[in-house]
Amino acid sequence: MTRRPTLDTISQLSARLGANEVSPVELLEESLGAIARLDSETHAFITVLEPSARTEAEAAQRRALARGRLGPLDGVPISIKDILATKEGPTTAGSPILENHMAGYDAPLVARLRAAGAVIVGKNNMHEFAFGVSSANRRFGAVRNPRAPGRIPGGSSGGTAAAIAGGMVCAGIGSDTGGSIRIPAACCELVGLKPTFGLIDTAGAIPQAWSLDHLGPLARCVDDIRLLLEAATGTAISSGTPLATLKGLRVGMPYSLVERADTATRTVFDNAMRLFQDNGAVVRKFDYPDLDEAYRAWLLIMLAESATYHRSNLRDAPDLIDPDIRPFLLAGTCLDGWEYLDAQRYRRRWCARLLQELDGFDVIANPTLPVAPPLRDAETVPGGQGEMPVRDAMVLYQWVANLTGWPSIALPCARAGDSVASSLMLTSQPCSDASLVQIAGLFERARGPLAAV
To answer: Catalytic pick from 31, 79, 95, 156?
Structure first.
């Protein structure tokens, strides 16, 4: 469906831009050309911000000619999930209800990216109101996975992942309430980071569930994730003592969850764990406490907060809400206040207990998904312990990091000889984003080139 992406990583393009081997205007033209060729089938974009992108690229070009580039993102084409407010164009959240909603201002994250010189090419398609895992959008078209056209691109940030994987942009921004960055990263063989809760300002983003929502980057490599995170936070996360090796790293493996992966996924994951061990890391099994009750708390919080945001939509325009997500919103309206408060209290106790129990680990490792990306029309998938609904399978490993707010990154892990493309998810304790990104980068280098499967 697509040719091999020619828009390279941020680091590589930044070096070319710094050497005047290519101009920001040329990169934008390449991005716009790829969108024109591919997006009628891929449906990765809801809005292409061509006029403002041209203005940004021209400004970046003037800075480059004057040798005054703002940094590595200056002049690099990226895109953002259409959940973030922008001065130009509508902010739809993938819904016909907001099809003509003009925010008229930049969300703080958008403003930071623009201040770093990033050229924001457009706003990406998504699962409506960020409430699904397939990005099969009724109004703006079902997003197609450029890596595997017969399989879902993941969701809800599927358009952002497809734009990157299809070579239309270099990198992008998604949101994550129950895996919506990490799921499409896994489905499209990308890297995706859900940072520590609150590290990136979510103001100006249409919410799904306020206390679970995160904004974060998707890209082709870990170093690009670092560059985007630094621009998004205004902080050089690599300013501390760098990790030079995986030797001595303490890796925890939640065995009860890992056992729910299918055989092929488990084999690739076991190979990844051996790679950690071969590089000096210590891998030990553990299990999350009271996992079913914790999941129930996450689900109650998500449903209650989502229903609260959508109460006017449910009252005034229920028929405009995707019928696949409307029952979840209606379920949230049936919850009592005490149930929500109890779930939040339980969440606080559970997270404190987990922090104590995981004190002996530097990072938690599990597959990002328990199965290969599902076929587009699949309703269930065969996991390691029987059939699972697609939605349940996609969030199986995700929700824990949303409930805790801890940083979590997904990255490809298949190597030569592995039978399937698979993704590894690494999670660490709160505010340890810098070390998590460094650990992911060390694993990426140890892994080497991706398997061609």
So the answer is: 156
Cβ-contact 117, 75 below 8 angstroms: yes
- Domains of the chain (ranges; CATH) run 10-239 (3.90.1300.10), 250-291+345-447 (no CATH)
The candidate with the shortest Cα–Cα distance to 439, out of 361, 381, 357, is: 361
Q: Rounded to two decimals, what is the model's pTM?
A: 0.96
Q: Which residues contact 207 (CB under 8 A, 6 or more apart)?
A: 213, 305, 309
What are the b/e assignments for 26-57, b being 16+ CB within 10 Å? ebbebbbebbeebbeebbbbbbbbeebbbebb
| Contacts of residue 3, Cβ cutoff 8 Å, sequence gap at least 6 | 167
Among 14, 23, 79, 180, the active-site one is 180
Q: Which two tokens stand for residue 322?
A: 């995707």
CA of residue 253 relative to chain centroid, distance: 22
Per the annotation, the verdict on 81 as an active-site residue is: yes
Contact call for residues 259 and 384 (beta carbons, < 8 A): yes
d(CA 62, CA 422): 42
Please say if 156 is a catalytic residue: yes
CA atoms within 13 A on the CB side of 239: 6
| Residue 95 appears among annotated catalytic residues | no
Cα-based distances in Å from 264 to 26, 276, 300, 342, 437: 42, 19, 33, 39, 26
Output b/e per residue, 176-211; b: 16+ Cβ within 10 A: bbbbbbbbbbbbbbbbbbbbbbebbebebbbbbbeb
1: pLDDT strictly greater than 80: no
Contacts made by residues 238-247, CB under 8 angstroms, sequence distance 24+: 238/434, 238/438, 240/434, 240/435, 242/438, 243/435, 243/438, 243/439, 243/442, 245/279, 245/280, 245/442, 246/276, 246/279, 246/280, 246/281, 246/439, 246/442, 246/443, 246/446, 247/279, 247/280, 247/281
Query: pLDDT per residue over 199-217, tens digit each?
Result: 999 999 999 999 999 999 9
State the pLDDT at residue 235.
86
SS3 291: helix
Exactly one of 81, 123, 157, 194 is catalytic; name it: 81
Tokens of 314: 């449910």
